[in-house]
Design a protein that fits this description.
4-stranded mixed β-sheet; 18 strands; Tumour Suppressor Smad4; elongated
Length: 276
Amino acid sequence: MERKPAELAVLFADVAGSTRLYEKLGNAKALECVGLLINIMRESALSHGGRVVKTIGDEVMCVFPTAAAATEAAADMQTRVEMQEPIAGQRLQIRIGVQFGPVLEEGQDVFGDCVNVASRMVKLAKPGQIIAAGECVAPLSAARKALTRVLDKLPVKGRQQEVDVYEILWQQSEELTYMAGRSSTPPIQPKVQMRLKYNGKEVTLGPDRELIKLGRDNSSDVVLADRKASRDLPRLDSRPSSAYQTASYRTADGSQRQDGPSSVRTDRLGSFVKPY
């Protein structure tokens, strides 16, 4: 009989910079610090209706019945960790990743796509951050959603569709106060424009045209009349946080070269940043 999956929120939390802690503090003191943080993670999870699935080194995996409970526990973990005094000048910090969805329970452990995505989210998080996938943010109340911000869309191994990535805001700040009181109506996106001129042709990149394809191929928006140019160069994209694939072109000696990933992208204020 096929097991029925359970809908749960999966949370991974790990100690940020644990290698540096061992290097700076020595094994005994660093192990004590890691143990302190692990206990904080456990206590926060249990106090918000969660269950600690397992501890792997300096990482804790927990499950919760709802996405709201998981995000509240995550914020509590970060708040309590932030209250800890630095040890020998070293700040103690953790990173958290959360996802909500169907999981298969086997004994005390859980498996499935939801677990894989949550594990990916914690790897994306910086010290002191809570990163959640879109499926975890979707069931939150409007008030809780107001305390999130979208970061990007990213590919996750095993998934055909990219995953929406959000940051859960937990620190008390002017930005957090503003976001908590803002309307649930999506903000008006700033207008971004870029004019590209080449060989007598002008193309405008902006709200009415988000992509411009460059290359030697006749199907390109801007056709490059140079036999050394690639048929398909990186696209220019005005959408926030977008990135495309590798740039491929031929060098003067005719050999093909590939650099990547490469793109031109815009930040949230609409200013162009360099390829990376």
